Amino acid sequence: MIKQLINRGFKDQHRKTEFSGMDLFTSDDVNGVGKSSVLEAVKLALLGEIPGKARTLDDLLQFTSCSEMSVKIVATACSRE
After folding, report:
1. Is residue 79 packed enough to be buried (19+ CB in 10 Å), middle (13-18) or exposed (0-12)?
2. How far apart are CA 8 and CA 6, in angstroms?
3. CA nearest 15: which of 59, 62, 69?
4. DSSP H helical segments within the chain, as ranges?
5. Alpha carbons 28 and 24: distance in angstroms, whole number
6. Residue 25: predicted pLDDT
7. CA-CA distance, 74 to 30, in Å (whole number)?
8. Is residue 51 within 8 Å of residue 59, measured between CB atoms?
9. What is the mean pLDDT of each run of 10 residues along the chain (81 residues)?
10. What is the pLDDT of residue 6?
11. I need a surface site. Which of 52, 54, 71, 77 has the fewest CB within 10 A?
12. Distance between CA atoms of 8 and 43, rounded to whole angstroms?
């Protein structure tokens, strides 16, 4: 189970998203809260697929103002991180 997503620079965002249920996707204020960015970051980290207009990792860096980018997923499996 994914516990958290740590985003540094992907889509110009620096954030840590804690997953404790579906609150990210079911909040009252659903516009502009970063749902798509979170899902695209998970897709990049787990599948290596580059979302959006970018075709390569170099292209992805051109769409950000950050010089570096990383996406880290913290997950549990069999009660271990």
Report:
1. exposed
2. 7
3. 69
4. 23-26, 35-47, 57-62
5. 10
6. 60
7. 24
8. no
9. 88 85 62 79 85 79 81 82 58
10. 93
11. 77
12. 15
